[in-house]
Amino acid sequence: MQAARRQHKNAKSKPLIQSEEIRGKEGSLDNMLIHGDNKAAMKNLLEQGYGGKIQMIYIDPPFFSKADYDAVVKAGDKQIRHLAYEDKWSKGMSQYLKMMASRLYLMKELLADDGLIFLHLDWHVVHYAKVIMDEIFGEKHFVNEIIWQYKSGGSSKKHFSRKHDTILVYSKSTKYKFFPLEEKSYNRQYKPYRFKGVKEYKDDLGWYTMVNMKDVWSIDMVGRTSSERTGYATQKPEALIERMISCCTEEGDLCADFFCGSGTLPVVAGRMNRKFIGCDEGGLAIESSVSRLAQAGQSFRVFDMKKEPKPKLKVDVEILEEEIYGTDKTHLRIRLKSLRERQLHKTTDGKSLETALEVLEEDALQMVHAWSIDYDYQDGIHRPDVVFVRTKGELTLEHERIIGEKKPMCIKVVDIFGNVVFERME
Ligand SMILES: C[S@@+](CC[C@H](N)C(=O)[O-])C[C@H]1O[C@@H](n2cnc3c(N)ncnc32)[C@H](O)[C@@H]1O
Description:
This protein is of the alpha/beta class. It has helices at 2-12, 38-47, 92-110, 126-137, 238-248, 264-271, 283-295, 350-363; strands at 19-23, 32-35, 54-59, 67-75, 78-87, 111-121, 142-149, 164-171, 182-186, 201-202, 207-212, 216-218, 254-257, 275-280, 300-304, 313-323, 330-341, 368-374, 386-389, 398-403, 409-415, 420-425. Helix 6 (264-271) links the parallel strand 13 (254-257) and strand 14. Helix 2 packs parallel to helix 3, helix 3 (92-110) runs parallel beside helix 4 (126-137) and helix 5 packs across helix 6. Bound molecules: S-adenosylmethionine (SAM). Residues 37-38, 60-62, 85, 232, 234-236, 259-262, 264, 279-282, 285 line the site of S-adenosylmethionine.
């Protein structure tokens, strides 16, 4: 017990691990994705001087729903259900609340004095969480209870249909930044009021005025056919996050989500020219965030605090080198030859496991979601020169390049479950 405790203490004071990967320009290195438990990540950020530096924190943690959440991933034309994250607590609500409280204390330390924190929950625990937030941030720093209402399937004959989530907003001081947003308020019977000095507008529904936004927000969930959809369970709509970022930050401010899932906050923050930190303990979540951010042309660093002792997949890469006669150049041909999955236990049902095994037997490379090559691998950081992502089921499996002096290379391969392997070559 003693030894274990000592080891834990040492682990706590580890400096922030080196970034694994840099995407885009080296310049905007404030943007980070951290793969690992957010408690360790936040402690590391505090050790690095991020205390009081984050202008806006949004978190959408597990809701204490006592359920498992899947991501639907595609392998060729087949779909596989894969465990995205668990929301089960063997020791009940006290275990959950303890987990949350210890993390909320760290978030308070990271939050800027004039910043806001948004805690997204639902009926399962939001009332208990409110008491904890009052305790940590202070009752007088309660700013809003936002009700996000949406349409979704399912109803009950025993109670009213539960169709809203609750977002608790707290500040750290009374001097927080807040930029009121506006919304339409339709006139009664959609007719013009013609009040003196009141500007009125008309759309297809009828006449309205613009008023300061209220605390009940009607925003559609990410639908099955939505272009935003990643397949990650509990993905939140970008429009919802955009409102929160807009009301309390300016360009250049730092926003963070320590339970970032598929990366919605980092994507929206980046698009709004804010800096971002995203953290998640799930590999699929981080790789989904990497793909979304890269697709949006963002620059960022990826840190891995959760390094697996053994990668969960193995790839066979063929590299053919041919010296070009009469020059000092070499023709390189790099090809992904095969892939082996080391564990498929996170497929959530028998059918999905069967499908995964079928795909592996037919053509294992269908399991590759993306791969990238860094032709000049330095300081242990993967800075890809070329990236291939499966689109509409198709993936380029070979790349050719003429190089001068031979340098160390690094090839990163990501499977459809978010498992990653780096192949380094001297
Ligand atoms: C509700 S989902 C977030 C969804 C996200 N808002 C989105 O739009 O995709 C909650 C996430 O919290 C992550 N998570 C749970 N406990 C964590 C922990 N201790 N550290 C880091 N991430 C955690 C899960 O892996 C999951 O991806």
